[in-house]
Specification:
about 450 residues; Rossmann fold; 2 domains; seven-stranded mixed beta sheet
Length: about 450
């Protein structure tokens, strides 16, 4: 009797909350342990009871360090998980940075909500605290790329380079003579900072991300597009605000801005504020892990020296009060939290302000609301009118588009027995399902949240 079961604890029918529980005769593992973001109904899932007691999970395998893939680890450990948490060295370093930042933000927001009285709860509590994060770190176990590692009685797995962000990998796992592939988030074939992703040659069961399963990234000169927005802000003596994910996207934006200055496409003396303490920490990892990316050490130093890196919150207000035309790169990328909200609370209602979105905006986030024409955003318990000019530059995304997903699959020697589309919104997933059928003849399934399948 086949005793292997797979349960979709997250990123099924949505982009966030990646968690896949695999139970085999050889052992059990949880692939990723991500935070739900976006719609309130999904955010509330972060507080739900676990489908299985965390103590029964044998290990956690992380594909990469983004919040929607690691953000519930502190709660998992607090609720009883004591097994190893595996990842590549950069992934574990990034996970530590991301979790420490997440705990800090949640604690600060709970304190602010209690102080200003805009929570429905009499005593707002954070999802987890910095002490919960500290309890996770001793469980981290670093693994190299391309080497098989054994877990349990016979289960084995390995990590392979996947682009997307520093340290990201897809997972090949073997159990009962079959190979599972968990794609994680797949990077771009041509990325300014990272190498192209490797591709699996065999997959009996495949879980494939589908974030951009319904679109192709526009073929634009992204450097000139960004320069155009910045020059317009200079003309209007205004701020150009670039909300950015602190991991990889922020570093990509810094690279482009450095290049634009070097080529005199924007003024060399233009103030550029990089306001993301977490992004600054991640930047240091690029120096620590040179084999994971394209940038030489001297270029990293030059890029860093040409911008004002803000770490203290008081300096955020100094940047806001700077009346010169300026560029602000600040977290978070979907406007779901972080320093960018302070800038928007003061500058969003100014028509001369320019906002440039450079990544995916999940359903229910402030970034998505902006894209869909919201006339106001709720920030720190107050509604701020939207008058700023908005530009969406999704071609800077670190996710593969539909064509790149098909390319990633094209190295497989045959159709998987089971192909599940995950980490995508329903329209993107269905478009990719249809495209796969037309282009390859393969059949893909779209699982539902908390669905359990036997394979």
């Amino acid at each position: 009797m086949n005793t292997t079961t797979l349960q979709f604890w997250g990123a099924a029918g949505c982009v966030t909350g990646s968690k896949y529980f695999l139970e085999t005769a050889e052992g059990s593992v949880l692939i990723d342990c991500g935070l739900f973001q976006g719609l309130k109904a999904r955010r509330l899932l972060n507080w739900s009871h676990w489908p299985r007691p965390p103590a029964e999970i044998g290990a956690v395998l992380l594909t990469h360090g983004h919040l929607d893939h690691v953000g519930l680890l502190p709660r998992l450990v607090r609720d009883g998980f004591r097994g190893p948490v595996y990842g590549t060295a950069p992934t574990l370093d990034i996970a530590r940075i991301v979790l420490e930042d997440s705990a800090k933000i949640q604690m600060e927001e709970a304190e602010q909500a209690a102080r200003e009285g805009y929570s429905r709860h009499e005593k707002p509590e954070p999802l987890y605290t910095d002490n919960d994060v500290k309890a996770c770190l001793p469980l981290f176990r670093e693994l190299p790329l391309d080497q098989w590692h054994r877990h349990g009685q016979g289960l084995k797995f390995r990590y392979r380079y996947n682009g997307h962000i520093l340290g990201a990998a897809f997972i090949e796992l073997e159990s009962g003579g079959r190979r599972w592939v968990f794609s994680g988030d797949i990077g771009r074939r041509s990325d300014r900072l990272l190498f192209p992703p490797e591709r699996p040659e065999r997959a009996d069961i495949l879980l494939l991300e589908s974030t951009y399963g319904n679109r192709l990234h526009p073929q634009l000169d992204m450097e000139e597009e960004l320069a155009t927005e910045i020059r317009a802000a200079i003309h209007d003596r205004a701020a150009c605000i670039i909300p950015s994910f602190a991991v990889e996207r922020l570093q990509t934006v810094m690279y482009i801005l450095w290049k634009l200055k070097r080529e005199n496409r924007i003024p060399a003396n233009l103030p550029i504020y990089v306001d993301s303490p977490m992004g600054a920490d991640v930047w240091e990892l690029f120096g620590r892990y040179p084999k994971w990316h394209r940038l030489p050490a001297e270029q990293l130093r030059a890029m860093h020296s040409g911008m004002e890196i803000i770490t203290e919150y008081g300096d955020t207000w100094r940047a806001i009060d700077d009346t010169r035309p300026k560029v602000v790169v600040a977290g978070s990328g979907m406007l779901s939290g972080g320093r960018v909200l302070t800038y928007l609370s003061q500058l969003l209602e100014k028509p001369e302000t320019r906002i440039v979105l450079v990544g995916f905006q999940a359903e229910g986030t402030r970034g998505r609301n902006l894209l869909e024409g919201a006339h106001e955003l709720k920030i720190f318990g107050k509604f701020v009118p939207v008058a700023a000019h908005l530009r969406d530059l999704q071609a800077l995304s670190a996710h593969a588009d539909q064509a790149e997903l098909l390319w990633w699959l094209s190295a497989l020697e045959k159709e998987p027995e089971h192909l599940f589309l995950v980490h995508g919104e329903p329209t993107a997933q269905d478009a990719l399902r249809i495209k796969l059928r037309e282009a390859t003849g393969w059949t893909a399934r779209i699982p539902e949240l908390m669905e359990t399948v036997r394979v």
